[in-house]
């Protein structure tokens, strides 16, 4: 019944928009304006709202894409379909980045398939049960591994869940909580640790602006000095620790955790009976597998990946030091190379140990790749709607709303709010930064204010959208890595993300009056903790006993 309602809604929406959007030249595309005004924010808002309301992501993204394509083609349904399909093919098939990420996702699924065939997760879970004695410790180790894998967010998302899902499952940690930890230690940590591909990208955006405005500044030094102002990543990373060692859960996450503790399911089975990653439950497992059959491939993947990143960054050619090479690496290429090499070596490792034959490994490779099909579809559609939004000028329209006459003290606060809205609507931090950093730096220079809070506000806002938008690629990969239904992951972590965003907004507002980063940083963290405590008291679940709550 739900599917029929979704289809009916999609058809009615497209027909209404077909009549409402003015036909420009009988559907023939003309030279696009800089942005399409309110129409430019309609597709992402529609896709996000539909995905939350219907709990169905794929059809919601399709509706958003079609609506955007209809706006671009003047309401002509046939031209809109052609536009949508061409954008999908071009975006997903982009050889420089997107297609390589799709390949990496499928390859990592194949690695997970082989590890499952070797019975590695179950054996590792038995080992962990003997050595990890508490639920809180399992959550902390998950957080710690996420923090340590800081060099790339995609790699982080897919590796942490694979490694520690057997452990968290044994302690009845909900898949929503696991996905939240994965997501919170992906993009946020990448911006806090100044040795990642993210830092190199931000520096590449700052350099031409520094030259244009004759600012004798080193972009890397500026980035490091900006970190104390980068409130949102700090808060959301601390949120994981706070909720891991206390019972201060609230909202949908509290319900998910209490449901898991009561043994009523690790995920919301009303959404799906089999979330991503659980397709291996019925797979035939080796009786010879041990914990080492999971640990060795994952450690090997990390080491090989770092070597590949250093190679693509010029380390072995003597062009850069190791960390500099990792920061400037072609990470998408390194991910594909590293996963492919790991796949081959893992098959050989299992064969030599007599755990899994080569033939059986190949069957597991195919089944593992199949398990990632939902993630591949959602990623492709998310990139497509992002590309549509770029053509519509969504980011430019939102940023144009900013007035030229607002006071200097409001600059960091306004930049954060606008960037957060754009990133949430488009599902991309990098694309949003490409729009907002060229606005933030000239604005700070013109108004003669410190550029550090302004840059930090843009970075924080971008991380917020990347972290929790339903159409963000890292959000999608985190739900896949945590084997959690995507929409449950979005619904459960969104209140936490909004809490951190609200506290961050207050921090940037105070920064406009009081330029002392450490003091403002400490105040923002204290405000955040108090807010979490209050929300827990008001919005925490009361349907379980105090003994069960203490376990959380």
UniProtKB/TrEMBL annotation:
Pfam families: Na_H_antiporter (PF03553). The chain crosses the membrane at residues 60-78, 98-116, 137-155, 231-250, 291-312, 332-352, 406-426, 496-514, 520-539. Residues 189-513 form the Na+/H+ antiporter NhaC-like C-terminal domain. This is Malate-2H(+)/Na(+)-lactate antiporter. It comes from the Bacteria. The gene is mleN_4. The lineage of its organism: Bacteria, Bacillati, Bacillota, Clostridia, Thermosediminibacterales. It is found in: Cell membrane. InterPro entries: Na/H_Antiport_NhaC-like_C. It comes from Fervidicola ferrireducens. Keywords: Cell membrane, Membrane, Transmembrane, Transmembrane helix.
């Amino acid at each position: 019944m739900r599917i029929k309602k979704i289809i009916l809604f999609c058809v009615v929406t497209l027909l209404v928009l077909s009549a409402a959007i003015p036909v420009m030249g009988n559907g023939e595309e003309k030279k696009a304006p800089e942005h399409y005004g309110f129409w430019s924010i309609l597709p992402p808002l529609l896709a996000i709202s539909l995905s939350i309301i219907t709990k169905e992501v794929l059809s919601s993204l399709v509706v958003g894409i079609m609506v955007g394509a209809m706006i671009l083609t003047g309401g002509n349904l046939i031209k809109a379909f052609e536009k949508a399909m061409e954008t999908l093919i071009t975006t997903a098939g982009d050889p420089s980045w997107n297609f390589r990420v799709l390949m990496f996702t499928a390859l990592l699924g194949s690695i997970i398939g082989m590890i499952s065939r070797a019975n590695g997760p179950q054996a590792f879970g038995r080992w962990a049960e003997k050595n990890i004695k508490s639920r809180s410790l399992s959550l902390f180790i998950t957080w710690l591994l996420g923090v340590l894998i800081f060099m790339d967010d995609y790699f982080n998302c897919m590796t942490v869940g694979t490694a520690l899902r057997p452990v968290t499952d044994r302690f009845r940690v909900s898949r929503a909580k696991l996905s939240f930890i994965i997501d919170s230690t992906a993009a946020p940590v990448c911006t806090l640790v100044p040795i990642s591909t993210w830092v190199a990208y931000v520096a590449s955006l700052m350099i031409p602006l520094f030259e244009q405005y004759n600012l004798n500044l080193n972009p890397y030094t500026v980035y490091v000095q900006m970190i104390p102002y980068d409130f949102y990543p700090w808060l959301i990373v601390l949120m994981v620790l706070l909720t891991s060692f206390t019972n201060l859960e609230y909202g949908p996450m509290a319900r998910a955790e209490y449901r898991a503790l009561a043994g009523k399911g690790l995920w919301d089975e009303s959404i799906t009976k089999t979330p991503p990653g659980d397709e291996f439950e019925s797979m035939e497992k080796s009786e010879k597998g041990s914990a080492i059959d999971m640990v060795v491939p994952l450690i090997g993947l990390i080491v090989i990946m770092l070597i590949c990143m250093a190679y693509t960054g010029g380390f072995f050619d003597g062009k850069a030091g190791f960390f500099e090479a990792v920061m400037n690496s072609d990470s998408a290429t390194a991910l594909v190379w590293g996963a492919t090499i790991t796949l081959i070596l893992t098959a050989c490792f299992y064969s030599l140990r007599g755990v899994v034959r080569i033939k059986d490994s190949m069957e597991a490779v195919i089944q593992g790749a199949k398990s990632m099909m939902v993630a591949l579809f959602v990623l492709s559609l998310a990139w497509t709607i992002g590309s549509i939004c770029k053509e519509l000028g969504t980011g430019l329209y939102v940023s144009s709303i900013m007035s030229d006459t607002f006071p200097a003290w409001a600059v960091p606060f306004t930049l954060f709010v606008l960037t957060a809205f754009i990133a949430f609507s488009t599902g991309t931090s990098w694309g949003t930064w490409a729009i907002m950093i060229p606005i933030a730096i000239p604005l700070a220079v013109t108004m003669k204010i410190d550029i550090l809070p302004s840059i930090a506000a843009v970075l924080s806002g971008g991380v917020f959208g990347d972290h929790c938008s339903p159409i963000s690629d890292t959000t999608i990969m985190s739900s896949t890595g945590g084997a959690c239904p995507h929409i449950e992951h979005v619904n459960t972590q969104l209140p936490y993300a909004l809490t951190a965003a609200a506290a961050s907004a207050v921090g940037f507002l105070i920064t406009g009056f009081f330029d002392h980063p450490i003091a403002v940083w400490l105040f923002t963290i204290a405000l955040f903790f108090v807010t979490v405590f209050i929300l827990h008291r008001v919005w925490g679940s009361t349907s379980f006993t105090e003994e069960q709550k203490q376990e959380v």
